[in-house]
Structures are given as C-alpha cells and as structure tokens.
Amino acid sequence: MDNFRGPLKSDCEELLGRFQATESVRFERFSAIWKSTNFSSIFYGKPDPKERRHFARLALSVVSPYFHPPYTFQIRVGGLYLLYGLFHTQLCTPKEKIRIALKDWKDVMQFQRDAENAQHHDVVYIFKKLMSDKAFLFTAMPTMLFFRMKREDGKGKKICEEFVDPPTRTQELVTTDMLEELANVHEHYENLKKAVFTDSDPNVNLIEQCLVSKLNNAVIAYSSWQDNHTVKAEQLDAGEGPSNQDSSRRAQLLASIKSRSYGHVMEASKARRHRQLQLVLSTDGDHTPNTSSKKKRPPSLKKRTQLRFKIQGTEREKLTNATRLWNLSKVKEDKVTEKKKQFKWTPKPESDVT
Amino acid sequence: MAESSGVTLNENVPVFEYTDVSSKEFHIGAFRDLWLNALNLDVYSYSDTSPEIRDVQLIEEMGIEPETLEELKNMCSVESLRSEHEDTDTVPADPQLSTLKLRKRRQEYKESLTRDHIDRHEAYANELEMICVGKKPEDLGDLVPEGELILTFNVLYPVLFQRFKHVRAYQTLNVLGSQKLTELKDAICCVSDLQVFGEFSNNPDTVPQFISKDHYKSAFFFFNGTFYNDTRFPECRDISATTIDWAKTRDFTEFETAKMEDTCFHDLKMKVGFPYYYTHQGDCEHVVILTDIRLVHQDDCLDKKLYPLITHKHRVVTRKCSVCHTYISRWVTTNDALAPTDPCLFCEQCFRLFHYDDKLNKVGDFLAYAYVDPGTFN
C-alpha cells in the first residue's frame, strides 16, 4: 500500500501546480481543475473496505503536509481545498479523518487569521465547515509512528521547490530588532572606547564605524538581487536568446559527426569473425543506471556452441528434439509455461509504453 | 510573520526527536490540557450543532451578509467536486491519474492469479472492527467523556524462533488516558499465559486445569527508566528487582519502580513511536510501542467498558496434528521413538490411539506435554 505514495504525491503535485498557475485562491478555480482531472475517481476500484480505508488514510496523510508551512499561502489554500475534496469524496463510512498535530495548530490558527484578514471568504468558510463536520483528529504527531528505522530513499520527503517561497534567511537573521540591538551595542562600545582612551588611538579601531548601516544596505541589496534574479530566470525560459541558437547549432553538428562515426562498424577479420562487433542502437538515448551498471559477461562456451550450431542449420534442432520415449503417450496440449510473475510496483520503461 | 528563534515551544508539545521515527518525551496529561485549552468545546464534542445555528455563527464570525453565505454555500458545496461516474468499484477506463494507472495494473495482476481458498479469518477480522466502531453504550455512565485521550499501543509478539524474526507480528490496543496500566496488562493476549506445565505421558487423563496466567501473575512495564510492577495479588513478585540490582553494578542511571495499578496513562511521560517493554511470566518479553495519542472523536467507540479495545491482531497459522492434519494439536511429544520428528504434534484422538494400547498402557518411551497452539487467539 505504501507503493501508492509515489503516484499519489505526483498526482497531488500536478493538481497543486495547476492551481498555482491560476494565481488565485478561489475555490471555483480549484474545483474546475479538480473536475477536469476527475480527481474523485482516485478512490475508485477497491471493493475491499479495509483497503479503501487504508488508502483514504494514506491519501489524507500525503496531502496534509501541503497545508502547513513552509509552503506558500496559495499552496496551503490549495492543500486545504484538496483535503476538503478528499475528505468528502472518500468512499468509506465512517469517514477517515484529517490528523493535526499540536505543534502545527498554531500555524493553522495563524493561517486562518491571515485568510480572514485578507477577506478570503471561501477559504474561511471551507475551513470552518471542515471543523464543524468534525473532520479533524487532534493528535500528538502528524502520522502514526512505528519506529521505522529503515532508511527510505528520501523520495517521499522531497519538498517541491516551486511550492515554497524563495529562502529569506538573510532577512530572517537581520531583522529590524536585531539591527536596533546591534546599533545600541555599537554605541555603547564607542562610548566605552572614548571613555578609556582620551585620544582616539588608531590601533583600537578594529571594526567598521558604520557597521549597522552597511549591514542593512547589504541585506537590502541582496534581496533586490534575489528578486531580479528570479525575474531574469523566468525571462530566459520564455525565449531563446541568440547565443543559445549558436550553441545549439554547434551541438547538432557535433552530434551528427559522432553518430556517423559510431554508426560505422569495422568488419572484423576472418579469424575474429566470431567476435564480430554489433551495432546496438540506443532506443531513447538515456541509459537507466540499472542497465549500464550491469557488466556484460561474454557468453559461456556452451552458449557459444549452441549459437554456432543454430546458425549453421536446423540439424541441431532436430537432434535436440530427439524422440523421448517416455513422452510418447503424453497428450499434446498447450502448457501454460509462464511462471507466476511477481507484481512489479515500479514498471521498467519498456513495459510502460501505453 | 517570521518567528524569532528565541521562542521555544512548551516542553509538552510533542516534536520529533528523529523525524518520522519517534518523538521526544512529553507528559501525557499536560499534552491533553494544552489541546483542550487551544480548542473550543464544540470542536471536539459529540453533538453536532444544527445547521441554522451554524449559519448564524458563521455570519457573525466572518462578518458577512446572509446572501454572501448562501453564495458561498453554493460555490463550495461538495457536489461541485463529485464526478458523474457512479460505479465506484471499478477503475474508470483510460485513467489519467498515475494512482489509478497503478491500481489498474495491480487489479489486472490480481485477477490473473488463482486463489485456492477464501480466508474465513478475513471475514472475522472485519467483524471485529464492525462491532466496536461508533458504538454508544446503553448506560450513559459508561460514556467516554469528551476530551478524553485515546492511546494506541502496538504490542509485538515475542520472537521465539530466530528464523521468524523478520515478521513483526503485533496486536494493536486502544486505551483511554484515564485507565490504569493494569487494564492494558490484562488485555494483552499472549499464548504463554495459557501454558500448562508438567509431563503427562504416564497420566494423560489428569491434565490439570490451571494455566500459567493464574500461577505466575508478576509482570512489569518499563517506560522511560521506571519499572511499573503489578502488585495486585500476593503472589506477584517484583521481577524487576534483578534488573535494577544488575544495573546498579554497571554504569546505568538509577532505575525507579512504581505500582502499575496506581498509575494511569495521564501520569506518564512517554515518547511516541519509541519501543518500550513489557514482561510477564518471568521471561516472556514483549516490545510495546505507543504509536498514537489523540483526542476522542464522535465516531470512535464511546463505550468505556469496551476499552482496552483490540483493533488489530496478527493471525498466526494454527498447527494441526501431524497424523490427521485435520484437528488442532493438543499434545507435543519429545524423545518419541514412534514419532517421525522431534518434537511432534498430535491431536487428542491421534495421541491416544498412537501411544496407548487397548488397556491404556503406554506404548514405547516418550515424554508428552500439553500444547497450546499460538493461533488460539484468532
């Protein structure tokens, strides 16, 4: 069941991404996206009630983090709408609830206050409706903890970078309070110095005189650079600059030269004909790490003998299929020879072509 | 609004010690008080406010007109999210969501398998859930009070064979915060409680009726450096004393003891998700993990008498007799020249027929013990 976590997360991120693109927090926009993807069908297809309940619980736990910081306000609103939708379209009775931990409650209350101040009535209404529908479970920790020491591959914990505000660590460090305090300390220090040394000794000037203002300017410059940088990055994505075109032409030229050289295979001499090189075309260009890490062992002697005899004719085939006396009376039937295959949760690329 | 790093949370707010593994220690009663202070009563009460009162409250709190409220209700109704596809049992054709694609593949795989038999135990397991969900007591005095805490414990079965230690079989129990530790102890079903001692090859008819549960009543819980002993009965001995004495000779902090029947869960300081310890019968050890603590909800079982409630029990395959493979085994023999394996299991009839002749004399040389199957709790 945990294998559904990956696809669930990608579905939710897609939905939230589309919601983010609308740049609005209105519920109508959200429900339009929901309906277009037919998201309520995510619960369909499991007649077993226990499995349904388990899946509903998993879905709610996957979406819950989007309702809390560090995501942006719009994503949090999207998360709230998603939770609302999932809670009401789930198929089990009694309904699976949304878990809220005590440590996150303050953030939730703050979120509600922000929404009220910004007059986002639909956000507030939906939140209050969920509260009155008793959709929340007030818990100690966000998920049930089983002391799983097994290290997972971290895929489930990745925070989608687009949903988070750009980091503002410098602004958080150098706040106005901090600057004020720094200015006070600086003043005290200067006064102390003046009191101790009657004439200003240049050796005692170890720090900047106008430390506070310089720090402030540096932080402001950084934040404006950050804003410009993000704007520039968006502009670059929009269109190709002339320099990009040149480099792509050159790349194409190089690629064509390479393909011609690798496409041509030298014919081996007669003595080495059995080790003739064969051209293996790469199907889609990207090598999955699995296949490239496997070392290709040279085929064994038995295998090579078989191959040789097979190439030379079908005589060997007749010999290999010699009459088996004990099989004579066997009824010829199509034996289902395929073994019970194990279910692959993550399909290999070639089998996923639909 | 960025919080300055100087503000620390109240120490009783549970936070992760190791993310997604376990939390730091906190006092359970204080945690409950924090939640109850933060919430309004109607948020966690069992009764639902009527829609009209709710509308009036909303208009007041949000400061909007009744027409706006009507508009909001229409816009944000759940009906706008439902789809036209009514058949919920099958995956819709041509799924777009990756979850549905995975589910479809899984269903197709499952249909390709051939199932030989239908598990009747699955049917019983579902019944277990059905009887307790949403149950209200007849006597209102037994109603779980609002704002009560429900703790969920996973009690793991002891590992008897090294080969099977990779399967972590457990049972899940829900207890109320106001209940005492002894109630949890009584509710844990362990097969070692039912063992009968003694060798009975010479007198198979006189198997005594007492079980180990009645004889050896000592048990203790070990939470956060304190041993909670069961001292209800005079036969109970303090079996934690040996461990405490041993620890004194080594470099451990001093362990304390307390009484199990005097402590209720509200008084404890625990870590969520951290493995703790329960021992009974002298050496039958169980790992106990507190997986979840939450406020009681309207849809939970509200009958106090039903707690501690078993919500999940791992099914163990019952061992049948080696001879007939039909009946559940009651006897185990060792040093038996007649039996194919050592030890060997027999049901009542096969045991008698095999080992005793017409005159009820013992045939062959063997030792026989009463066997209690681990699957008796299924």
UniProtKB/TrEMBL annotation, chain B:
Pfam families: SNAPC3
The protein's name in its UniProt record: snRNA-activating protein complex subunit 3
Gene Ontology cellular-component terms listed: nucleus; snRNA-activating protein complex
Classification lineage: Eukaryota, Metazoa, Chordata, Craniata, Vertebrata
Compartments where located: Nucleus
Presence of keyword Transcription: yes
Similarity comment: family membership: Belongs to the SNAPC3/SRD2 family.
GO terms for MF: bent DNA binding; core promoter sequence-specific DNA binding; RNA polymerase II cis-regulatory region sequence-specific DNA binding; RNA polymerase III type 3 promoter sequence-specific DNA binding
Keywords assigned: DNA-binding, Nucleus, Transcription, Transcription regulation
